[in-house]
Amino acid sequence: MTTQVRTLPKRAPVTVVRARRSLGARLAEGVGGGLLRLFLIVVGLFWLVPTIGLLLSSLRSPSDMSASGWWTVFGKPSQLTVESYQKLLENGDITNSLVNTVLITVPATVLVVVIGSLAGYAFAWMEFPGRDWWFLAVVGLLVVPVQVALIPIAELFGRIGLFGTVFGVILFHTGFGLPFAVFLLRNFFAEIPRELLEAARLDGAGELRLFARVVLPLGGPAIASLGIFQFLWVWNDMLVALVFTKSGTQPITVALQTQVRQFGNNIDVLAPGAFISMVIPLAVFFAFQRQFVSGVMAGAVK
After folding, report:
1. 145: exposed, middle or buried (C-beta count within 10 Å: 0-12, 13-18, 19+)?
2. What sign does the CA torsion over 268, 274, 276, 279 have?
3. pLDDT in tens, 78-125
């Protein structure tokens, strides 16, 4: 008995054909690499020119500033001095305005974050009558411009004795910061898996403990982003402070504007004051940059 062995046909050798890359593809790769980075670095340095100019101007004497531009420092480093900052510390109006700015910005930011977080959780996961209608009312407040409420609220604060006080400015910033805070945090908290909250409730967690132990840690990036936005808005505000503050409660933005109006060319005080008022929010932003980016990107990737 003979057995027949079937032989399989040999496969043709596999040849790898590399398609020739077009000139456009090679240029795109080059642009996406080193050239793009170089371009972004140049744009970043160009964007920093006003900040660098203000810093160098604040480190020069008034005579040097009136005689030449700030860029001459690179050729004559001996022009640099801290005399302007010493005069700034001796100016009671500027130093008092810096303290007022901190007293206004920090409570207004903390109140918006705390109240907005609680309200956002309530609108996202708690059941109560008219919840959706109340949330729509909060969203509707986002379209109310600040300028419309200045005169009515100024009259109200004048009747109850809050006009011209730091507390009145804090209340105004808190009230106008809450609609955006509630809208942002409610939408973020609503993305938390329901199963996670139900599991915590089965373990005996109440609403307050559930909010503190589960929701707040998960909502950290969004809360950090909200805090940065609110801090920058209140710190750099001038319109509300110009209307609601008096000479003893003015923040740094109004104090610098008053210095310009009164003395005109006192650049030795204005330059360091303006740089300090600018560098503090920049430091806050870069300190929480990672949390800010995480909050902005939250929900973009599922």
Report:
1. exposed
2. negative
3. 888 888 888 888 777 888 888 999 999 999 999 999 999 999 988 988
**What one-letter code names the amino acid at 234?**
V
- Alpha-carbon distance of 191 to 183, in angstroms, equals 13
Assess contact for 227 and 109: CB atoms under 8 A.
yes
Q: Quick check: helix, strand or coil at residue 228?
A: helix
Outline where 31-145 has alpha helix (H): 36-58, 62-67, 83-90, 92-125, 131-140
Give 126's contacts (C-beta < 8 A, 6+ positions apart).
207
**Which among 243, 274, 244 is positioned nearest to 257, based on CA atoms?**
274
Q: Which residue has the tokens 């210095």?
A: 259
> Residue 37 — very low, low, confident or very high, per pLDDT cuts 50/70/90?
confident
Report, in angstroms and rounded to the nearest whole number, the Rg of the chain calculated over CA atoms: 29
Q: Which amino acid is at 100?
A: N
Rounding to the nearest 10 degrees, give the CA dihedral for residues 58, 64, 69, 73: -70
Cα–Cα distance, 200 to 197 (Å, whole number):
5
Averaged over 224-236, what is the pLDDT?
A: 89
Question: In the structure encoding, which two tokens stand for residue 279, read together?
Answer: 């560098």
CA distance 178 to 190: 18
Query: Exposed (0-12), middle (13-18) or buried (19+): which is 41, by Cβ within 10 Å?
Result: exposed
Question: Which of 283, 294, 124 minimizes the C-alpha distance to 224?
Answer: 294
- How long, in residues, is the chain? 302
Instruction: Give the separation between CA 179 and CA 2, rounded to whole angstroms.
Output: 90
C-alpha torsion 57→58→61→62, nearest 10: 70
CA atoms within 13 A on the CB side of 159: 5
